[in-house]
Amino acid sequence: METLDVEPExxxxxxxxxxxxxxxxxxxxxxxxxxxxxxxxxxxxERAITIDGHRKILLSGSIHYPRSTSQxxxxxxxxxxxxxxxxxxxxxxxxxxxxxxxxxxxxxNLDIVRFIKTIQQEGLYSVVxxxxxxxxxxxxxxxxxxxxNMPGIEFRTANNVYMNEMQNFTTLIVDMLRKEKLFASQGGxxxxxQIENEYGNVMSSYGDAGKAYINWCANMADSLHIGVPWLMxxxxxxxxxxIETCNGFYCDSYTPKNPTSPKMWTENxxxxxxxxxxxxxxxxxxxxxxxxxxxxQRGGTFQNYYMYHGGTNFGRTAGGPxxxxxxxxxxxxxxxxxxxxxxWGHLKQLHSVLKSMEKTLTYGNISTLDFGSSVAATxxxxxxxxxxxxGNANETSDATINFQxxxxxxxxxxxxxxxxxxxxxFNTAKVNTQTSVMIKKPNEANSSILEWMWRPEFTHDTIxxxxxxxxxxxxxxxxxxxxxxxxxxxxxxxxxLGKDDAMWSNNMTLRVHGSGQILHSYVNGKYIGSQWAKxxxxxxxxxxxxxxxxxxxxxxxxxxxxxxxxxxxxxxxTQAGVPGPVEIVGHKGDETIIKDxxxxxxxxxxxxxxxxxxxxxxxxxxxxxxxxxxxxNRNLTWYKASFKAPLGTDPVVVDLLGLGKGEAWINGHSIxxxxxxxxxxxxxxxxxxxxxxxxxxxxxxxxxxxQPTQRYYHVPRSFLNEDVNTIVLFEEFGGNPSQVDFQPVVxxxxxxxVSEGNTVELSCHGRPISGVRFASLxxxxxxxxxxxxxxxxxxxxVVSIVEDQCVGKESCSFKVxxxxxxxxxxxxxxxxxxxxxxxx
Length: 840
Known about the structure:
Number of domains: 4
Structural class: alpha+beta
Number of strands: 41
């Protein structure tokens, strides 16, 4: 159609906005003729993203389509909209879409077109971060490993082999989205796109070639003429017409270098990711809200939560290495899609207040009053109205200020928002929404423990015979040999010792220089040990005593990766598997003799026989399973059992406590790697309530010390059958499956602490409120689950009043007032508060 010819002119700069106005009559005629959905002109100026010429406050949230299921998408997006978001942001994941060169997959939870259309159906915008490097704690940063194995390639630099492949995939995605008319310039929901990702963090390592590459990225993206602006996050002074943006826990102090770019925040980290052996990170609701309010106080107009729903690293998609299967990220929607309260509700209130001020925030003149001690007021004023922020960045001291002839108390590390510059509509430190305590319920559908079958992984050819698929006279990096077809790669060689060999000794060791991931070693068919490092530790040395015999000796190493490196300069060059050398270390008297086996003839086998035979597939009939003498604590063992799904529609998890490490499948669907035997450090947690005040980092407010890093694993309802279901486990380390149990995740109780004059809203999210555990008006102390009354307490039976309001209902709402709940018997307390806890 002729209208496509005008799309390249729908750009961001002022001259191009004028050119767009020249085409407006033509576009209007197409709208009137209804030849396609209404077109939207997305551009920007120095203040904000503009849509059809109007500056916008845009609130976005990240939901990654492969980290949930297509059946979950409508509910997730609906809850995001109800939470006050305008847009959903997602990366595009190259390695899952093009697992082999020029062979593509956009089915199931990889159907990005369906995902974006689901966003459109809910009336939200979309932000597509094509990258195609994504980081995202995703395997290999989203790059397919076949790319690494292309001759002459260098990643993320001015390298023709790499740039050709990157351009091919980027163009493929753009053409796919354009064909479905998904860009706003075509009437679709996509208002922004991103090319590359956080390259500014590593660009200096690539020198002049890095600068040339990022300029090429900008030109290549611009040449695709998508009709909406392109972003480059963490890219100071991004090449025009790209818009640079900020990522981090706080971006209020960020100012784009280009004066024509608006202040945009593409990643506000709502929590942090978790690694095997690590503790549970937690970012408080108050601090997250503070970061958002302060960003808008200081001129921001676009903000995206990373993540709004973190989800699950199904299959082998987790990167790192050592990123857990759960990618919950302490997001406003939890891993299973439940509301993470109070974070979701508190942010919803904040979003509503910010949107009510959209015109003043985007068109108003900005002035600031500095009260000292990190306290400041910011006024946005137009001819019609004014809106104000009162911010206190002090980490310990509350502040009382006189502003426009009125006194205001601002808690430490908080922002008060006054849409009319008079009345405080929201304070980031005062949370009035409920706290939901999630619990796992027993599975009422299963009346007894699971009956397990088992079979060993067939290893005779590898461990005993040393027989593989490929032979090379060197040690080969696992990415090069296996091309990420499996976590597992067998390295097999032999060493011959003569009777008079100088190394002949009773004090020999096998020394393996590994990549820091998992190694299992065998000598002459016998297991001698395993070893692994912790998160982000590389070049780990494994050394165990061995007994070698004169003559032929078989050396076998099984390497197991737990995700490939996803971040850092030249991260693609980080070796996986066994980088070597592999050595036999012996002694002759005081002399140490080292025999390097690195140049030996090595045989390689990719993967496991059980994987090749698809033992995880419930329809697999190729092998027999045994129910006799089911072993425990036996490595390289497959287990299988049938079970009934928990009743109802609540999200489901499987408890894998008692197992070692491996991978789990439900009805043939991989729910990811498991490793409940990896215990988090015992040090670093605190029993004290987390203090939201002060800058957040991933080590602040951690929990779960001394416990399994991840015990529960998400089983999406769409993976389950109504009748019989099958679970298959591959146990790598050795464990006991007898404790495996499926449990629904529900709200166990709901709490709220609300000041007098405000409204309490409590919900059990689809289940009735069954009782009131605590209720007190006055000055109650403690936290949810541990509230306590003080001498300042109401003269009425507050528990009975709340019972009348709430019990038997799925949700209840009421205003806190002394007329209803009585008068506390104290006179010197601050504003009265109602603390309430209900059971579900």
